Amino acid sequence: MPTSFLESLFPGDEPVISRLRDELRQVVSTPGLTTVLLQGPPGTGKTTIGRAIAAARMLALGDKARLPPGRLGRLMNAITLAWPQ
What we know:
mainly alpha; 0% strand; 4 helices; 85 residues; single chain
């Protein structure tokens, strides 16, 4: 993930912002599956971070709040069934 992309999403020189960019760089450069849990109140940037990770890893991002009722369960079952045992 180019540094300029991260700096455009998360500008600033504060230590917490620098650490965020470093953590994101590590997450997107780690091969294989990675779990990221984003928690916080509305408007704190969870979706922005999720979109940045998805874009850098060339993945689709699904927002469970926007899925029709029952779709998340079917999606999780499909993922579980497709995962090698």
